């Protein structure tokens, strides 16, 4: 149950979260970077973590940390520190007497800088059939072990005349909440003997009751800084806006309102580029908001107080503020404005994709989803382990205790399992984390769902030497593409590619999955992976794969199969296949993409000619160079507006620069009458662009060899890989043959004409038993 301290760095928006790994891999994790203490003295011991292993009280549980914006206390002098260490004896825990018992901590009264004093008392957790409310009123703490500085400083507390070392961030909290009377608390760092692995394993299954039965949960964000008060004031303003609009039934304001002149007078908020937003953005960027452990702690708590230094708000206020910013779309503009104003902090060679860094600034999406998850839980709605793993995979735990990717969710799993944690998921830190991942995956498969196979990340994200079987996701790596087979997504989009038959899995070897499969076809052609290139270029190069003169296996036009494939035949809202009116949205997007490609080509030429500097009227040059209206398709015109010119462009003239889009648009759509020129003005190309982004990112388009299907699949798919439907599976999969009937998983895919059980309409379909094991990244067919 480890949450350690190291510096977290997110490099890719839809990729695994990379971190700078700390130097020591023992119980105490040191980032090897000295953190200069501020100048506020306080009694008590604070010292840097030693590199060598401690055999007494270990700190085996907390979350990785990141950049500094907090304050800290000054340690005593080295001489005084050493004398205190040598004169104090270390507290030794007494074993708990029962499996359903916990320790509660009593924080003793104290003033200002007086030493922290605590005591422990053992309490039994009431069972499901006993009193719903514990006889003891206590507060459960949700926090990170170490401060925002990322350093590893420690303080001590006194317990029965002996010393217990605690992290600086926890000591800060204890000083803040200490009053003139005893305060009962549950804090994992102190109430669990961190040096006893067996006790930790016994205590984790009790986390649900611990957080549910307390008086409240305190979410500690860390010490305050000079901007904290402004940040909390902003949260209250946003919360008030959310409540007033909700109560009056008003729609959310659009992003345009954020840029309007009357924005401040209408909403009482500063402009989007105002530095008054920065303390708020930085508060929501604190590392506690990317930790996996806090999810169950916040969801389960009867009441949640958010505290930063001396400032407090309710989690409802924070949640409503986040929901407001998320649904208005304002957060994206605020993130971009923040990054522009702090460019020197983020623009670094070889490190930066600006869109990716945005995610670590003001984590509104995480807070909004956490708040909604809490509301649904309070309404009696629970989530399966598969759903939790899919939606929370980006959240972080310690790199050295990756078991917690599963164990940190067990409180919510128990809530959906009538209070019981399945035996296959019970904590065991003695097992390698790869076995924990494998056993959790096998548990879900044996429950009758193949959905967890869709969570397997692309082979490019797995190390060659990795010991996980290919059918087991590495839950420490974020699945960068939208998971089509995720329970919520597949149900919403109506996918039943493998039919509604019972899933039949076998495990004669714990690392080898045996199941029934039907081979649809082999991969023939593959387009580029949509990752670093523009959407327009991805669309153009993918369009070149399509043979518009060939009939599609479903009987529909090839061009219709193509545009539906790019959005997985879904409008992302309803369970029905995408309506035909989206054909116009696609046509509009094709035109815009062709124009973008042509404009970029001309801009590159101007740049090469040195015409992008000085007082040269670039729009006038473009107006002269770009072709204008002519031909029979004169209604198919886009107007490019600049400050001085309006440039009409006929996209059908773009053949030299975008031949793929030219063919799709003119030969596939206009010439067949599937889209008429006079109706193109009714398109919503941005709607199609957004849907394609969601479904195609970190995927590539492919065609199949003998049957001519079109699909989108993982970046690592190759020619001659097999396209399979698995018995009872929601979506098809790309499998790579190793030898005989042995395969490895490459990844899930969308294949147009296969997603709704069409394979079962053909007579004579026979299942074949296949084996999926480790395999290799490279093809080794014999």
TrEMBL record:
Which InterPro entries did the record assign? HET, HetReg/Transcr_Mod
Q: Which Pfam families match?
A: HET (PF06985), Het-6_barrel (PF26639)
Domain Heterokaryon incompatibility, by residue range, is 138-297
Region feature (Disordered): 61-83
Coiled-coil ranges per UniProt: none
PANTHER family (UniProt xref): ANKYRIN REPEAT DOMAIN-CONTAINING PROTEIN 39 HOMOLOG-RELATED, HETEROKARYON INCOMPATIBILITY DOMAIN-CONTAINING PROTEIN
Name-wise, this protein is Heterokaryon incompatibility protein-domain-containing protein
